[in-house]
Amino acid sequence: MSDPTETNGTAGAAESAESTQAGGGERRVRVVLVDDHRMFRTGVQAEIGQTEQTGVEVVGEAADVDQAVTVITATRPEVVLLDVHLPGGGGVEVLRRCAPLMGDTEQPVRFLALSVSDAAEDVIGVIRGGARGYVTKTITGTDLVASIFRVQEGDAVFSPRLAGFVLDAFASTDAPPVDEDLDRLTQREREVLRLIARGYAYKEIAKQLFISVKTVESHVSAVLRKLQLSNRHELTRWATARRLV
After folding, report:
1. Which domain holds residue 135?
2. Dist. CA 190–CA 169, nearest whole Å
3. Which is nearest to 88 in space by CA: 17, 144, 49, 36?
4. What are phi and psi of 81, to 5 degrees?
């Protein structure tokens, strides 16, 4: 989280964060961190969780979909920092299960995706699911704080390149083209597909997704069958060509 080129696509974002700090912590936002890497959560907490300086209060953390839904429901934060790839169904599944909280007119829970992925499919998927913005993990701490406050206020926040994906997808009233091959896969099959394409072994995938090796094998067989591919090498090429890795 140190690349100074990453911005949230809104003028004055850094100034917003600075004014929050300069104001002696007068503004406050309650945040839940959802990411399956504990070290990353610890880093984000250290970077933005000094409430008196940033105005951000981290009220909960979660490492998978079920934990996320439980913590978000219990704490009702203003903003959730949500990773896209999570055990148990991914960020989209968290959004689906938390839809009633997002629709609360008195105290809505708003979501800001914070992910290492900058793939168009991931960006569009979580925005369709209801997230208010999407930034990558190269964002600076100052810009992340500013983005959190903008999302709390109801604004949409994106880094410039990712905003382009969203504008392209929703520029017309017509639905964007659907990848019919990808659409055949379930959410869990897509998760397995991505991990296979990234070179994970079956045991590693099983551990990552909290499922058995046998279940991983079944998902891989289903993916190969649905996509009419012969082996994991063809699968990796297929996924890479669609920027799913």
Report:
1. 13-170
2. 20
3. 36
4. -85, 115
d(CA 144, CA 121): 22
Tokens read off for 230: 């012969």
On whether both 62 and 155 belong to a single domain, the answer is yes
Say how far residue 143 (Cα) sits from the centre of its chain: 17
3-state secondary structure (DSSP) of residue 155: coil
Give the pTM. 0.63
Number of domains in the chain: 2
The 3-state DSSP class for residue 208 equals: helix
Q: Which residue among 170, 188, 206 closes a domain?
A: 170
CA distances from 36 to 182, 183, 201, 207, 230 (A): 24, 25, 18, 12, 31
Q: What's the CATH code of the domain at 218?
A: 1.10.10.10
Q: Helix 213-227 vs helix 202-209: angle between axes, to the nearest 10 degrees? A: 110
Distance, in Å, from the CA atom of 66 to the CA atom of 43, rounded to the nearest integer, reads 22
Which residue from 242, 226, 129, 236 is spatially nearest to 185, judged by alpha carbons? Answer: 226
Each residue's pLDDT expressed in tens, for the chain with a length of 245 residues: 544 334 444 434 444 444 444 334 478 999 999 999 999 999 999 999 888 889 999 999 999 999 999 999 999 999 999 999 998 888 999 999 998 898 887 889 999 999 988 887 888 888 888 999 999 988 999 999 999 999 999 898 987 777 776 766 665 544 445 567 777 888 788 888 988 888 889 999 888 888 899 999 999 999 999 899 999 888 888 888 777 76
Per-residue burial over 38-58, b if 16 or more Cβ lie within 10 Å, else e, is: eebbeebeebbebeeebbbbb
